[in-house]
């Protein structure tokens, strides 16, 4: 029996989660801290080191052979640095070197959080058994990752598959990234809610103006809420179809908070895909909701570390 383990870190603007993970993707030991996102970079790193401290103190640590990190981005895997948009204290921060120092200089694999979730969905979730897949996280932002030829395809810096910043509306609204009409500017949760409010939708007595509240209104038949989700679905379909045409994926998996909206999103998305994915080699493209849930980042970071530890694909990753 292969008994080696890997350590996994999932670093976001809200929490820093860590786990020791076996070759079947089971999380055997867990640790977590809140992300001190508004503090300076070294304070954020101390929270990471506290999570690692709990993991290294576990008896199972002796079996750990590598560390995988899935981080909010942008990341630069080639330089070992991270610059998460929602953690302003980290700009070009040397995360890989710091994690190596805290773990006895184990090998460290860094990928973006969208790529990590893609690795998880391909290993154990909705993209399992698919050699060519796009996985998307549609929430506050829109991220993603690619599996091509049966292998995770993070690209040189770890950001490949970042579908949120494909432009699908040439003269559309300016996006914070600097471009115009990006998928994220139309399909992210805050933008779905913004568009609904601008169109005259009003929240219920609880005052909830989230995309989830818009989804509930759309399910109840509110035409403005329905239209906002249809516009988001159209943007997602255009981005997915462009990706499929470029690299021949056969499934797009959608997770994140907006992905949980169900048929309010998926029904218009499937309809829109028939209008955008028209060439013969992309007509069989399917879309599916993500299956991995809140542990996806950890499982995906572990998958990347297992691949590195083995020097090859592991369990189909």
UniProtKB/TrEMBL annotation:
PROSITE patterns to which the protein is assigned, alphabetical: ROK
Domain of life, source organism: Bacteria
Positions in coiled-coil regions: none
Gene3D superfamilies reported in the protein's UniProt record: 3.30.420.40
InterPro entries (alphabetical): ATPase_NBD, ROK, ROK_cs
Classification via Pfam families: ROK
Family named by the database record: Belongs to the ROK (NagC/XylR) family.
PANTHER family listed in its UniProt record: N-ACETYLMANNOSAMINE KINASE, ROK (REPRESSOR, ORF, KINASE) FAMILY
Full protein name: ROK family protein
